[in-house]
């Protein structure tokens, strides 16, 4: 072995030394931050500085269980670029070495010990290939056990004699058992995923990806990337992550903090729009209609119908004089304001000023001295205010929707030519509510109220929105999300085949239209990191029926997985308990997925058999999961109890079943009493 290629042991030791030095440097950075005193001219700035220092010190805390770096690239600079170099370490002036980790660490001289994975130089770590090496001579990946560096793997990208081998470290990461909440994937982001992660802040990306292709992971890493790369812009405007339900948010909530981002709001669509308490649900056809984009038109008309035709002269007494603004001038002001395209409330606020200005012009013509203060006083005067109240009255979005759903005439006037009479009849409450407090609001109503509120008052959005499971949103929900993004960009993630709501989007171009982002780029992720081949093949039997145009994922798992289909012999619960117990005895998490209505019975059955099933959100090793809540989650071992009952429970039952079957990381057991859906017939032989 030459001097330039140290023994593997020496290399490993050199890397361990680098890790220890990096940890020491990180400690020093943190101590330095803690030694700073926040002092500024005023109290508010001092408090702000204190908070910033606290956050910084927090971000610099070292978690010994998480390696400080996971990879390294060596690049050649200048004349040596392009030369075949096989050496691993050793000093070479024309080489630059970068250790890549979750955050930046520098030594006492300010030189980088670890480079943040989001920095520009780190891009090559993720993208370099032998065909396009990005100047990378060496790419090294590290294996860790409990925070200590235990192995490394090298690729010499310029060495033409070396051929591609599947990375063991990468494989182990993809194959590791899934226990507890979702983890970050910074060490192993794949090139096609990295393209999405590093798309610029001004780019809206829509990602179609089959189950387990990493959409959620990619969306969260993109949020972290954007927050790092556009720190200042996003510090003002923020990033919002929207997911389908609390269980899902709980599952993903640790990813961004692990990546050092603690200030990201993560909400469900329901939380996003809830201004009134939701008391009940709508039948599917009514909810679908309420979610139809035509409702936006109806609401626009309903809100603006409050604008009245001016038909009286405005008189404004001041001192001994009385100024008048004739009807046609008021009408002109109203028309100009209406044409500006502002929110209803902005127009109303401006009308007072416009009318006051007209009075001012008359006062000036009569030789009076005027200024802005006088205009403001007139705008706030009783006659002007009450005139504005008549012509452009205040509107409460909740009451607008209340009236639309309770007053057939009001609805008819707003919906004429937009909704058919039969549709209008569907929307009306059987018994109109007495007031906003007693109304039996549904989620779809809250989305309508949100739209009405936006027609009344525009609000600015955040800098970036990550929308997960986007295929399930109604057009009206998509509009509500688009409003949160304002002029900012979005990452839209989803899978058409997993659309389970009656209003699920039929295609991405259509969803993008409602999101007001028709120009957005559509990316397709194909490689599946969750579901093993045996399970993919089985679940894919549903695709020709539920989404003929959608391809199944290409499983990149080395574990082929196992699939068992078990017909219960009269004792469904007993069979479910037996197979669950078997799964519990293996490595990793177990999810028992059942039709929602069966959750309690199955939980009791398992408990009776001595198992201890937890509920969603408990992070227990064994969880009972109602089928409607399983979207986005994954378990090493999935036991599905009676698929036919899951299918029968809802209109998009087969799509729900597709979601359920694609949660398994290692093994899938289907225990059934009722016959399987015919699409799944011809089941693979038991393992
Ligand atoms: N590059 C990667 N390296 C390692 N693991 C990965 C990678 N990409 C994805 N995974 C893992 O694959 C699993 C599935 O990822 P994720 O949940 O993001 O997929 P998804 O496309 O959102 O799936 P679904 O549509 O079913 O919700 C997760 O455990 C994730 O950590």
UniProtKB/TrEMBL annotation:
Record keywords: ATP-binding, Helicase, Hydrolase, Nucleotide-binding
Binding residue positions for ATP: 209-216
Xref: Pfam families: Viral_helicase1 (PF01443)
Cellular component per GO, a single term: cytosol
Domain of life: Bacteria
Domain UvrD-like helicase ATP-binding: start-end pairs: 188-532
SUPFAM superfamilies listed in its UniProt record: P-loop containing nucleoside triphosphate hydrolases
Residues annotated as transmembrane: none
Family annotation (Gene3D superfamilies): P-loop containing nucleotide triphosphate hydrolases (3.40.50.300)
GO biological process, one term: recombinational repair
One GO MF term: ATP binding
Cross-referenced InterPro entries: (+)RNA_virus_helicase_core_dom, DNA_helicase_UvrD/REP, P-loop_NTPase, UvrD-like_ATP-bd
PROSITE patterns in alphabetical order: UVRD_HELICASE_ATP_BIND (PS51198)
The name this protein goes by in its record: DNA helicase IV
Species this chain originates from: Haloactinopolyspora alba
């Amino acid at each position: 072995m030459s001097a330039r290629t140290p023994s593997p042991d020496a290399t490993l030791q050199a890397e361990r030394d680098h890790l220890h030095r990096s940890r020491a440097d990180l400690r020093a950075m943190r101590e330095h931050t803690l030694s700073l005193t926040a002092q500024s001219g005023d109290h508010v700035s001092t408090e702000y500085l204190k908070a910033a220092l606290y956050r910084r010190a927090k971000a610099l805390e070292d978690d010994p269980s998480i390696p400080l770096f996971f990879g390294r690239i060596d690049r050649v600079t200048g004349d040596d670029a392009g030369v075949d170099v096989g050496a691993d370490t050793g000093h070479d002036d024309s080489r630059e070495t970068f250790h890549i980790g979750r955050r930046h660490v520098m030594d006492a001289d300010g030189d980088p010990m670890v480079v943040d994975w989001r920095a520009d130089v780190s891009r090559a770590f993720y993208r370099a290939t032998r065909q396009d090496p990005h100047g990378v001579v060496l790419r090294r990946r590290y294996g860790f056990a409990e925070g200590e560096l235990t192995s490394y793997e090298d690729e010499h990208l310029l060495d033409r004699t070396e051929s591609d081998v599947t990375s063991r470290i990468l494989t182990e990461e993809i194959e590791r058992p899934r226990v507890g909440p979702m983890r970050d994937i910074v060490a192993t982001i794949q090139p096609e995923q990295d393209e999405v992660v590093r798309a610029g802040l001004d780019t809206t990306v829509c990602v179609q990806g089959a189950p387990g292709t990493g959409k959620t992971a990619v969306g969260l890493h993109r949020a972290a990337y954007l927050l790092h790369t556009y720190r200042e812009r996003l510090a003002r405007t923020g990033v919002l992550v929207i997911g389908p339900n609390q269980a899902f948010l709980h599952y993903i909530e640790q990813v961004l903090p692990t990546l050092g981002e603690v200030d990201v709001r993560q909400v469900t669509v329901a939380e996003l729009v809830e201004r009134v308490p939701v008391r009940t649900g709508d039948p599917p056809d009514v909810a679908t209609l309420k979610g139809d984009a035509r409702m936006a038109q109806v609401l626009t008309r309903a809100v603006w119908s409050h604008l009245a035709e001016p038909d009286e002269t405005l008189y404004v007494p001041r001192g001994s004089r009385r100024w008048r603004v004739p009807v046609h001038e008021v009408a002109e002001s109203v028309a100009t304001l209406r044409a500006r395209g502002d929110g209803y409330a902005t127009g109303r606020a401006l009308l007072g000023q416009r009318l006051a200005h007209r009075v001012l012009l008359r006062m000036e013509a009569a030789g009076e001295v005027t200024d802005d203060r006088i205009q403001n006083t007139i705008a706030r005067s009783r006659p002007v205010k009450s005139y504005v109240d008549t012509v452009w009255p205040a509107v409460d979005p909740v009451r607008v929707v209340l009236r639309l759903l309770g007053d057939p005439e009001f609805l008819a006037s707003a919906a004429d030519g937009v909704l058919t009479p039969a549709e209008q009849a569907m929307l009306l409450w059987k018994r109109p509510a007495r007031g906003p407090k007693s109304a039996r609001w549904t989620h779809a109503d809250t989305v309508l109220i949100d739209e009405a509120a936006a027609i009344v008052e525009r609000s600015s959005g955040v800098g970036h929105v990550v929308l997960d499971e986007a295929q399930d949103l109604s057009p009206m929900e998509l509009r509500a999300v688009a409003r949160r993004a304002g002029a900012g960009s979005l990452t839209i993630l989803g899978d058409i085949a997993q659309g389970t709501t009656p209003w699920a989007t039929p295609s991405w171009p259509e969803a993008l239209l409602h999101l007001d982002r028709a120009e957005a780029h559509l990316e397709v992720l194909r490689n599946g990191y969750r579901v093993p081949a045996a399970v993919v093949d089985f679940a894919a039997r549903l695709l020709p029926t539920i989404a003929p145009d959608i391809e199944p994922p290409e499983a990149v798992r080395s574990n082929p997985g196992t699939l068992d289909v078990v017909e219960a012999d009269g004792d469904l619960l007993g069979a479910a308990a037996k197979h669950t117990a078997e799964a519990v005895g293996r490595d990793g998490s177990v999810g028992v997925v059942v039709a929602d209505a069966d959750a309690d019975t199955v939980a009791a059955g398992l408990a009776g058999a001595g198992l201890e099933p937890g509920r969603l959100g408990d992070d227990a090793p064994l969880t009972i999961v109602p089928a409607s809540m399983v979207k986005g989650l994954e378990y090493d071992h999935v036991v599905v109890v009676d698929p036919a009952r899951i299918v029968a429970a809802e209109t998009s039952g087969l799509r729900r079943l597709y979601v359920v079957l694609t949660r398994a990381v290692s093994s899938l057991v289907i225990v059934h009493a009722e016959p399987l859906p015919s699409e799944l017939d011809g089941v693979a032989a038991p393992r």
